[in-house]
Structure to design on (729 residues):
C-alpha cells in the first residue's frame, strides 16, 4: 500500500522509519573511499546472494564470503584469530547470546564511531538492546531474531485427533494422547538437551532472568523459578517417553523427522527455513506453525527467543567504515532482508522488513513448505511477545558448554531435572569467580 | 677441531627442528602458564596461581579419573588381543600368510585417527548404522553414543586402531628369539603350550612393558576420536584431559590456564612413564 507522505513528515525521517507499516528505504550511508575487499564469515545459507546484491549497490566494496562453520565452530576460529592478532575477518556473524563474550574480550569495534547509532530505530527494540548492552557503544548490527512458535505435522495431528495446544497443560495432554494412540511409535515433540539457549528461551518467555548486573557487579540465577518450571515440565514428558531427546542439528533428528517419528518442534523463527531445506520434498506441505503455548490461558501473550544473530566488525579490520556499511546494508536494506528470508530463512531484526511482501509470499519457501501458510505472521506475533530486557553474561561460552553436562545427567536419570539447574548454577558461578568477575548467585 | 665438529653438524637437521618445534613450544607453554590475561588486555604475571587452580579443578580431575578408568580396562584388553595375535602369527608356517595377516592387522593404524573416528561414528549413529538396524531387528536397543555407551564405543575405536600397532612390537620381539632356543626346548620334550609359557612369554615381557608404556602415554593423550564424535553426539568436554585443554584454550579463549593444564598433564605423563620404566628395570632384575 502506497501512502502519499505529508512533506512535514519527510523532514523527520526517523519518525518514518519507526513506523513498520511503511517499507520505506532508509538512507544508507554512501561509500566514498578507495575500492576495498572485505572478508566476511557467516553460516547463513545462501548469504552469497545477499552479498552479490550488496556489491551491485556498492561497486567499490568487494566481499569475500566464507562459511567457517556455524555457532561454536565459528567462535572458536574467531577467538583464536583475535588472540593471534591476525586472521580475523572484517565482518563476522555472532549470535546475541555470545556477543558479551566477544565484547568483553576486546575484539569488536564500537560502531558509533562509524555513525551506526543513528540506525537504532530501524531495528526491533530488544535486538538493539542486545548489540548495545550498555546503552551507548554499539558492537554489532542485528541480523535476525528467533522468537518461538510451534512447528507441527498437521497430518499427524489430524490422524490422531490432536488439538493444537494453546497452553502447556494441553501440550502435555496431547503428548500423552499421541503416545497412547500411536503405540509409542511417534514422539509428540523433542527436547533439545544440547542447546542451553533453547531452554533459556522458553524460560525467557515465562519471565525468567538469568543474569542482571549493575556496574561491574553481576547476579546470576541459572536456576530461576521459570527455568525450573520449564525443565520439570519437559522432564516429565521425557521420562514418560512422550518426548524424544534427539539433539538438534544431527542426522539422528533429521532421520526421525523424515520418518515422521516426531510430530512437533518448538522452533525459533529461523527454524522453518532450515526445516524446509533439510527435509526438501519429504513431508513438504504437511507442516504448520502455531503460536507458543502459554502457562495460563487468556493472559498477555508471551514468547521467548532462541538465537538470532548479528554482524560484528572486528578490531583487525583495516576498512572499518566499509565494513560497518556492509553490516548495516545486508541486514536492513529491503532487497537484502527479502533475500535473507527466501534463501536463509532469516526472520528479520529489521522492523520494516517484517512487513515486506516477500515474507508473506505463500509460494516461496519457507511458507511453501508450510502448505502456503503465512508463517511470518505467526512469528511476527511471537516477536512482539518477547520480553525486551534480556542480558547475557560475558562467560556465556562456558555456561553454554557446561549446560550440556547437566542436561545429559538429567536425561539419563542421574540427576533430577530441576536439580540439574542448581548444579549448573554452581558450576558456572565458580567458573565466573575464577575468571575474576564480581558475581553472586541468587 | 674439524673432526670434532663434524658429528654435531650431522645432528643439526634433527636438532634445529627439535629445538624450534618441540623444546621452544614447551618452554613457551611454561612461560604462558605463569600469566593471566583477560581478553586482549595486557597479561599479568601471577606466578604459580594457575597451577594452584589446576589442583582444585574438578573438571580436570574428573577427566583424569575418566581416562584412568578407561585405561585400566582398555589397555590390558588391547594388549591381550595383540599378544594372542602375535603368538598366532608367530606360530604360522607360511611366510606369505604371516606377511599378509600382519599387514592386515596393522592397517587400521595407518588410517588417520580423524577418519577412523568419523567412520566408527557413523557405524554408531542411530538410524544410519547397519549394526543398529540389525540389532533393532533382533529387538535390541543399544545406544552406542549415549552417556552410558560412549566410553565403551570410544574404547572400541582405540582398540581397533592400536591393537595392530602393539601386535607388531610383540611380533618383532617373538621373531627375534633365536631358533636354537626352541630347538633345545623341543629336544627336552617341551609341549607347544610349555614353549609359550616358559620361552615366548618371558622373551616378549620387555616388549609387552614397552607396549604398555606407549599405551599409557597414548591414553593420556586421547583427543581426536572424542573430538570427532562431538559432531554426532554429546561428548562431555572433560571426557579426556586433552579435550578439556583444547576447550579451555580455543572455546573459552583462556590460553594461559590451558597452558598450565597442558604442562600439568605432561608432568603427570612423565611420572607415569617413569613408574613404568622403573617397573621394567625391576622386572629385568627379577627374571
Amino acid at each position: 500500500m502506497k501512502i502519499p507522505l505529508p512533506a512535514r513528515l519527510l523532514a523527520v525521517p526517523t519518525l518514518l522509519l519507526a513506523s513498520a507499516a511503511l517499507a520505506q528505504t532508509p538512507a544508507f550511508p554512501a561509500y566514498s573511499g578507495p575500492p576495498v575487499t572485505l572478508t566476511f564469515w557467516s553460516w547463513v545459507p545462501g548469504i552469497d546472494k545477499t552479498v552479490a546484491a550488496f556489491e551491485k549497490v556498492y561497486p567499490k566494496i568487494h566481499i569475500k564470503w566464507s562459511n567457517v562453520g556455524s555457532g561454536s565452530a565459528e567462535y572458536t576460529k574467531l577467538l583464536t584469530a583475535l588472540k593471534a592478532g591476525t586472521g580475523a575477518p572484517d565482518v563476522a556473524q555472532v549470535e546475541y547470546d555470545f556477543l558479551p563474550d566477544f565484547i568483553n574480550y576486546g575484539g569488536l569495534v564500537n560502531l558509533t564511531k562509524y555513525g551506526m547509532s543513528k540506525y537504532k530505530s530501524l531495528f526491533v527494540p530488544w535486538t538493539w538492546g542486545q548489540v548495545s548492552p550498555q546503552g551507548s557503544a554499539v558492537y554489532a548490527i542485528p541480523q535476525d531474531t528467533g522468537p518461538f512458535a510451534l512447528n507441527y505435522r498437521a497430518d499427524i495431528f489430524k490422524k490422531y485427533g490432536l488439538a493444537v495446544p494453546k497452553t502447556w497443560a494441553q501440550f502435555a495432554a496431547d503428548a500423552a494422547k499421541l503416545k497412547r494412540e500411536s503405540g509409542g511409535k511417534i514422539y509428540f515433540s523433542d527436547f533439545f538437551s544440547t542447546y542451553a539457549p533453547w531452554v533459556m528461551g522458553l524460560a525467557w518467555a515465562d519471565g525468567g532472568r538469568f543474569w542482571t548486573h549493575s556496574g561491574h557487579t553481576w547476579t546470576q540465577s541459572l536456576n530461576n523459578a521459570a527455568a525450573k518450571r520449564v525443565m520439570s515440565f519437559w522432564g516429565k514428558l521425557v521420562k514418560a517417553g512422550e518426548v524424544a531427546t534427539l539433539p538438534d542439528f544431527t542426522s539422528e533428528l533429521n532421520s526421525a523427522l523424515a520418518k515422521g517419528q516426531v510430530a512437533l518442534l518448538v522452533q525459533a523463527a529461523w527454524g522453518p527455513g532450515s526445516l524446509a531445506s533439510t527435509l526438501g520434498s519429504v513431508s513438504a506441505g504437511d507442516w504448520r506453525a502455531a503460536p507458543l503455548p502459554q502457562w495460563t490461558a487468556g493472559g498477555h501473550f508471551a514468547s521467548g527467543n532462541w538465537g538470532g544473530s548479528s554482524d560484528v566488525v572486528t578490531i583487525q579490520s583495516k576498512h572499518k567504515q566499509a565494513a560497518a556499511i556492509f553490516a548495516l546494508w545486508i541486514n536492513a536494506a529491503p532487497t537484502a532482508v527479502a533475500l535473507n528470508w527466501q534463501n536463509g530463512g532469516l526472520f528479520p531484526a529489521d522492523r520494516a522488513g517484517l512487513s515486506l511482501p516477500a515474507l508473506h509470499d505463500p509460494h516461496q519457501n519457507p511458507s511453501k513448505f508450510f502448505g502456503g501458510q503465512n508463517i511470518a505472521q505467526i512469528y511476527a506475533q511471537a516477536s512482539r511477545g518477547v520480553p525486551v530486557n534480556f542480558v547475557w553474561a560475558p562467560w556465556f561460552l562456558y555456561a553454554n558448554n557446561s549446560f550440556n553436562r547437566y542436561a545429559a545427567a538429567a536425561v539419563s536419570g542421574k540427576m533430577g531435572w530441576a536439580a540439574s539447574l542448581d548444579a549448573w548454577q554452581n558450576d558456572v558461578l565458580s567458573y565466573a569467580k575464577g575468571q575474576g568477575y564480581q558475581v553472586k548467585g541468587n | 677441531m674439524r673432526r670434532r665438529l663434524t658429528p654435531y653438524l650431522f645432528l643439526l637437521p634433527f636438532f634445529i627442528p627439535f629445538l624450534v618445534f618441540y623444546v621452544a613450544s614447551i618452554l613457551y607453554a611454561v612461560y604462558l602458564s605463569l600469566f593471566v590475561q583477560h581478553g586482549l588486555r595486557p597479561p599479568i604475571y601471577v606466578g604459580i596461581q594457575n597451577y594452584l587452580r589446576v589442583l582444585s579443578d574438578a573438571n580436570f580431575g574428573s577427566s583424569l579419573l575418566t581416562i584412568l578408568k578407561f585405561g585400566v580396562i582398555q589397555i590390558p584388553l588391547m594388549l591381550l588381543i595383540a599378544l594372542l595375535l602375535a603368538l598366532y602369527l608367530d606360530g604360522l608356517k607360511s611366510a606369505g600368510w604371516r606377511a599378509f595377516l600382519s599387514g592386515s592387522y596393522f592397517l587400521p593404524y595407518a588410517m588417520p585417527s580423524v577418519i577412523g573416528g568419523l567412520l566408527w561414528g557413523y557405524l554408531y549413529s542411530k538410524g544410519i548404522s547397519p549394526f543398529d538396524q540389525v540389532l533393532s531387528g533382533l529387538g535390541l536397543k543399544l545406544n552406542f553414543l549415549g552417556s552410558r555407551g560412549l566410553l565403551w564405543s570410544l574404547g572400541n575405536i582405540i582398540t581397533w586402531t592400536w591393537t595392530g600397532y602393539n601386535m607388531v612390537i610383540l611380533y618383532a620381539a617373538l621373531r627375534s628369539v633365536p631358533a636354537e632356543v626352541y630347538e633345545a626346548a623341543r629336544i627336552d620334550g617341551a609341549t607347544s603350550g610349555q614353549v609359550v609359557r616358559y620361552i615366548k612369554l618371558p622373551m616378549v615381557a620387555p616388549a609387552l612393558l614397552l607396549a604398555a608404556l606407549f599405551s599409557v602415554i597414548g591414553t593420556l593423550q586421547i583427543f581426536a576420536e572424542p573430538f570427532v564424535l562431538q559432531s554426532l553426539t554429546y561428548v562431555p568436554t572433560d571426557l579426556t584431559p586433552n579435550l578439556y585443554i583444547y576447550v579451555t584454550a580455543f572455546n573459552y579463549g583462556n590460553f594461559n590456564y590451558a597452558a598450565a593444564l597442558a604442562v600439568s598433564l605432561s608432568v603427570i605423563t612423565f611420572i607415569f612413564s617413569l613408574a613404568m620404566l622403573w617397573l621394567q628395570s625391576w622386572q629385568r632384575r627379577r627374571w
